[in-house]
Write a structure and sequence with these properties.
Chain A: Keywords: 4Fe-4S, Iron, Iron-sulfur, Metal-binding, Repeat. The complex is a heterodimer of chains A (about 200) and B (about 675). Chain A is of the alpha+beta class. Chain A has four helices and nine strands, in the order E-E-E-E-E-H-H-E-H-E-E-H-E. The chains are: A alpha+beta (about 200), B alpha/beta (about 675).
Chain lengths: ~200, ~675
C-alpha cells in the first residue's frame, strides 16, 4: 500500500501503525501493554485532521504530516502541562524533549496538580509515587489485558484528576496483585519504582 | 548485562542493574521467552546472593561429631578427593553417588556427571527432577522416545484449547500462565483439571475439580468417551502409532458413571471436556506436579499421552504434550546426563552402541548397568557410603523428613557444594562454597529446550567459586589418584565445546557466539539450523518411528483418609517461594510470605471450630508441624494444602515415601492427615 508521509511517497504493509512510519515522540505507547492513543504526544496530521500515530493504521493514499509548526506547538503545550502538574525528575527523556521543544511551563501560571501527593509504600517490593504519574495508563494495561490479566490496578477520577489506583483504593496486598512488577517495568516516569532504588 | 532467571523453567531473560555490588532493579528485555514480562521472583527475588547465609569458605570436618572448620581450597579438595578415592577402592563404584543440580549450568552438570562416570565409574547420578517430572520423563520416553515439551512456548499464541492438568501455573510458572490467560482472553478455551481453585481454574472455560489422586481415572474416562463417540483421529492413529486397539479395549472399566463416583466430577462435564479436547485441532496439554507426584504418576502422565495420541495432537503446531519443567535448568540437567540410566543426550547406559560411543569419547570403560535413582540412593545408605551433593537440599525436599535425617546421619561421607547454608549443610563432612548464577558464566536450558546464556554480573564473595571450577579441581585430584583422563577445561565455553562434540545432532549448532543474541532450541545440528520448535512432526524417536500406546490402570493413592486421619494433605508451592526456600527465603520475597499457611476449606474449618488465621497442628502418621490456618474455598472440602518451603514447619515431615514403581517419584500429593487446634 502506498501513502504520502511528510511530502514523500512511502510503501507500508497492511495494518502498519503510523508510528512505524514517522519519527514522533511517544509517551503512553508501549508494545507490550497495547496502550494506545492516550497521551497525544504522538499526534500527527492525517488528511488535515489530528490523529495519534500510535493508534492510527496506515491506509492507501493517506497524506500524513508529522512535524508541522502546529504539531510542535501542540507537543510543547502538552509537555508544559505535564511539567506543571507532575514531578518529572525521574523521566529524563521527557525532560530532554521539553528542552528540545523549548517548553516554558511558567507561562501558564499555577495549575492544580498531583505534585504534592505522598508516595504509597504498602508492600515489600515497590513504591507508588503518584506525584510522578503522567496518567499514561501503561501500568493499568500491563496489569490487565496487556500482559497479566490480574486487574489489580485501575483508573479513577476524570480529566486532570484522573489517576491510577487499586480497586477501591485498597493497599496492594489486599488486591489480586501478584507483584510481578510488570507495571514497574513499563512505567516511564519512575512513579512506580522498586524499593531497592529509593 | 542480560542473563537468565534462576528460579523456574520458563527461562525468563532478565537484565539486573547492579550498583555498588547490589541488584537495584531488574528489567526484562523484549526477547523470548518472556518478552519483557517477569514474575515476582525474577523481578524482586534476586537478592539471595547477598544473604548473610552465603557459604564463603571451604570447610571440613575430620570425623563425625567434630565441628566444621575453615580450610583452604587446596586442603578441602585434597581431603574430599582422597576420601572419595578410598571409598571407591574399598567399596566399589556402587558405594558412591553424585547429584548434580538442576540449578547449576549445563556445563557444570555435564562436568559433574562426567566426574561420576569417568573418575568414580558410577552411574549413581541423578538430580532433583527425580522428585518432580521423572514420571513425565518415563511416560514420554517410552511412548514417544523423547521427554521434553513437544511444542515451543510461542505455540501458546496458536493454541485454541488448553488442557491444563495438575498445574498451579499462575504460581509456579507465572509468565507462562499470563501468556495462556491472555490467549484465553483472545478467545481460546481452557479445561483445568485440579482439586484446587487455582488462578488457572479461575480463568478456565471448564474446571474439573477432581478428588486428589484421581486424575488418571478422569483422563481414562475422557479417553473412553473419545473412543466410544468415534472422536479419535483414525488417520493419525493408523499412520503414526501402534498399540491403539489393546489400549482402547483397556478403557472398558472407565465409564462416566464410575468416573463420577471416583473423581467427584459429574460425568457430563467429563464428556464435555473429552469432546472439546478431541474436536479442537490445536489443543495443547500442559501439566506439572499434580500429575507426576503420585504413586501412579507415570501412569497418569501416560494416560495424558495416550489421549493426545488418540486424538492426533502430537507433532502439530499449537498442540502437543507440554510438561512444565520446574527448575531453571531441569531440562538441561537431563540433557547433560544427570540421570542414572542415560548418558548425555539420553543415550541409554544399557545400550552397547551408545556406551561405546562415550567410552571412545571419554577414553574410559563404562558400566552397562544403570545406577541408582536419587530416592534409591538415600534408601541404600549405608551401602552407599559417599555422596557428592551439588546445590540440593534433601532434608527439605525429600519426603518423610525424619527418615531422611536418619539416613543422612548414617551416611559416612557427604560433600555439600552450595551457595547458601541450608538444612542439609549440618550433615556435611566437606563444604564447598559455590558461586551464584549472578557470579558465573554458562548456559541454562529452559522448559521448551531453549539453551540460554548465564552471565557474570558480580564477583563471587569470599572464596566462593563457580561449580564448574570446583568440580574440575576435584576431578583433577581424582584423576591424579586413579590415573584416568580428565582434561582441564579453561572455562565454561571450553566445556560447552566438548558438549557440542559429544552431542553433535542435539547441540552441534549452538555456539556461545550464537547465544549472544538470543537462546537457541535443541535439536540444532548445525550453525545455520534455527533450532527445532515442534518435535515429532514426521516421526517419533522410537525404533519404529511410531508412538506407542500404553494401557494404564487406576489405583487409589497409597494412603487414604480414615477416622484417625480424615483429611487429605496436598503439598506444593506458593507464588513467593521456591522449593526448599533456600533462595526465596533469603531474599526480599520472604517479607511477602513469611510463614507456613495451610489452606483449609470453610466447611472443614467450621466442623473443627478453626478460625481463619488461627494456629493449628497438621498431623500425619509420620509427624506434626505447626501452621497458620487459611480458611479458603480454594481447597475442596476434605483436602488441606500446605507449601513445603518452610524449614521450621516442613510439610515433608508429613509426606510419605511411597514411590511410583517406574519413576520412583514419591507421592507428595496425597497423605492422610488431621488438624488439631493448638490448645
Amino acid at each position: 500500500m502506498r501513502l504520502k508521509v511528510d511530502g514523500k511517497e512511502m510503501e507500508a504493509r497492511e495494518g502498519a501503525l503510523l508510528l512505524e512510519l514517522v519519527q514522533v515522540p511517544t509517551l503512553c505507547h508501549h508494545p507490550h501493554t497495547e496502550t494506545r492513543g492516550l497521551c497525544r504526544l504522538c499526534l500527527v496530521e492525517v488528511d488535515g485532521r489530528l490523529s495519534p500515530a500510535c493508534a492510527t493504521e496506515a491506509r492507501e493514499g493517506m497524506e500524513v504530516w508529522s512535524d508541522t509548526p502546529g504539531l510542535r506547538a501542540l507537543r510543547k503545550t502538552l509537555l508544559e502541562w505535564l511539567l506543571l502538574t507532575t514531578d518529572l525528575s525521574l523521566a529524563p527523556e521527557l525532560q530532554a524533549l521539553a528542552l528540545a521543544l523549548e517548553a516554558e511551563p511558567g507561562r501558564w501560571g499555577e495549575v492544580p496538580g498531583r505534585k504534592g501527593r505522598e508516595a504509597i509504600e504498602d508492600n515489600p517490593f515497590f513504591l507508588r509515587d503518584y506525584a510522578k504519574c503522567v496518567n499514561c495508563r501503561r501500568c493499568v494495561d500491563a496489569c490487565g489485558d496487556g500482559i497479566m490479566g490480574v486487574y489489580a490496578l485501575t483508573l479513577t477520577g476524570r480529566g486532570l484528576l484522573a489517576h491510577p489506583t487499586t480497586p477501591l483504593d485498597r493497599p496492594l496486598p489486599e488486591t489480586p496483585c501478584v507483584f510481578c512488577g510488570n507495571c514497574v517495568q513499563v512505567c516511564p516516569t519512575g512513579a512506580l519504582r522498586p524499593l531497592t532504588e529509593v | 548485562m542480560r542473563t537468565t532467571c534462576p528460579y523456574c523453567g520458563v527461562g525468563c531473560q532478565l537484565e539486573p542493574e547492579v550498583r555498588a555490588g547490589r541488584v537495584v532493579r531488574v528489567l526484562a528485555p523484549d526477547l523470548p521467552p518472556n518478552h519483557g514480562a517477569l514474575c515476582v521472583k525474577g523481578r524482586f527475588g534476586l537478592d539471595f546472593p547477598f544473604s548473610g547465609k552465603r557459604l564463603l569458605y571451604p570447610m571440613l570436618r575430620e570425623r563425625k561429631g567434630a565441628p566444621l572448620r575453615r580450610v583452604s581450597w587446596e586442603e578441602a579438595l585434597d581431603f574430599a578427593a582422597h576420601r572419595l578415592h578410598e571409598t571407591l577402592k574399598a567399596h566399589g563404584p556402587e558405594a558412591l553417588a553424585v547429584f548434580p543440580s538442576a540449578k547449576t549450568t549445563n556445563e557444570e552438570v555435564y562436568l559433574a556427571q562426567k566426574l561420576a562416570r569417568v573418575l568414580l565409574s558410577t552411574h549413581n547420578v541423578d538430580h532433583c527432577s527425580r522428585l518432580c517430572h521423572s514420571s513425565s520423563t518415563a511416560a514420554l520416553s517410552r511412548a514417544l522416545g523423547g521427554a521434553s515439551m513437544t511444542n515451543p512456548l510461542e505455540d501458546i499464541w496458536k493454541t485454541d484449547l488448553f488442557l491444563v492438568v495438575g498445574s498451579n501455573t499462575t504460581e509456579t510458572h507465572p509468565v507462562i500462565a499470563a501468556m495462556i490467560k491472555k490467549r484465553v482472553r483472545q478467545g481460546a478455551r481452557m479445561i483445568v483439571v485440579d482439586p484446587r481453585y487455582t488462578g488457572m481454574a479461575e480463568a478456565a472455560t471448564l474446571w474439573l475439580r477432581v478428588r486428589p489422586g484421581t486424575d488418571l481415572f478422569l483422563l481414562n474416562a475422557m479417553a473412553r468417551v473419545v473412543v466410544e463417540e468415534g472422536l479419535w483421529n483414525r488417520a493419525y492413529v493408523e499412520e503414526r502409532t501402534e498399540g491403539f486397539q489393546a489400549w482402547a479395549e483397556s478403557l472398558a472399566p472407565y465409564t462416566l458413571e464410575r468416573a463420577e463416583e471416583v473423581t467427584g466430577v459429574p460425568g457430563e462435564r467429563i464428556r464435555e471436556a473429552a469432546r472439546l479436547y478431541a474436536t479442537t485441532e490445536r489443543a495443547g496439554a500442559y501439566w506439572a506436579m499434580g500429575v507426576t507426584q503420585h504413586t501412579k504418576g507415570t501412569a497418569t502422565a501416560q494416560a495424558l499421552v495416550n489421549l493426545a495420541l488418540a486424538t492426533g495432537k502430537v507433532g502439530r503446531e499449537g498442540a502437543g504434550l507440554n510438561p512444565l519443567r520446574g527448575q531453571n535448568n531441569v531440562q538441561g540437567a537431563g540433557d547433560m546426563g544427570a540421570l542414572p540410566d542415560v548418558l548425555p543426550g539420553y543415550a541409554k547406559v544399557a545400550e552397547e552402541e551408545a556406551r561405546r560411543r562415550f567410552e571412545a569419547f571419554w577414553g574410559v570403560p563404562l558400566s552397562p548397568k544403570p545406577g541408582l535413582r536419587m530416592t534409591e540412593v538415600f534408601e541404600a545408605i549405608p551401602e552407599v557410603k559417599a555422596i557428592y551433593l551439588i546445590g540440593e537440599d534433601p532434608m527439605t525436599s525429600e519426603p518423610f523428613q525424619d527418615h531422611t535425617k536418619a539416613q543422612l546421619e548414617a551416611l559416612p561421607f557427604l560433600i555439600v557444594q552450595d551457595i547458601l547454608e541450608n538444612e542439609t549443610t549440618p550433615f556435611a563432612d566437606v563444604v564447598f562454597p559455590a558461586a551464584s548464577f549472578l557470579e558465573k558464566e554458562g548456559t541454562f536450558t529452559n522448559t521448551d529446550r531453549r539453551v540460554q546464556r548465564v552471565r557474570r554480573v558480580l564477583d563471587p564473595p569470599g572464596e566462593a567459586r563457580p561449580d564448574w571450577w570446583i568440580t574440575r579441581e576435584l576431578g583433577r585430584r581424582l584423576a591424579a589418584l586413579s590415573g584416568r583422563p580428565w582434561p582441564l577445561h579453561e572455562g565454561p565455553e571450553a566445556i560447552w565445546e566438548e558438549i557440542r562434540r559429544a552431542l553433535p545432532g542435539m547441540m552441534g549448532g549452538i555456539s556461545y557466539r550464537r547465544l549472544e543474541k538470543e537462546g537457541v532450541r535443541w535439536p540444532c545440528p548445525s550453525e545455520d539450523h534455527p533450532g527445532e520448535a515442534v518435535l515429532f512432526r514426521e516421526r517419533f524417536n522410537t525404533p519404529s518411528g511410531r508412538a506407542r500406546f500404553f494401557p494404564v490402570d487406576y489405583t487409589p493413592p497409597a494412603e487414604t483418609p480414615d477416622e484417625a486421619y480424615p483429611l487429605t494433605l496436598s503439598t506444593g508451592r506458593v507464588l513467593f517461594h521456591w522449593h526448599g526456600g533456600t533462595l526465596s527465603r533469603n531474599s526480599r520475597l520472604e517479607a511477602a510470605y513469611p510463614e507456613l499457611k495451610v489452606e483449609v476449606n470453610p466447611r472443614d474449618a467450621a466442623r473443627l471450630g478453626i478460625a481463619d488465621g488461627e494456629r493449628v497442628f497438621v498431623v500425619s502418621r509420620r509427624g506434626r508441624i505447626q501452621a497458620r490456618a487459611w480458611v479458603t474455598d480454594r481447597t475442596p472440602e476434605g483436602v488441606v494444602y500446605a507449601p513445603f518451603h518452610f524449614a521450621e514447619a516442613p510439610a515433608n515431615r508429613l509426606t510419605q515415601d511411597a514411590l511410583d514403581p517406574i519413576s520412583r517419584i514419591p507421592e507428595y500429593k496425597v497423605s492422610a492427615v488431621r488438624l488439631e487446634k493448638l490448645d
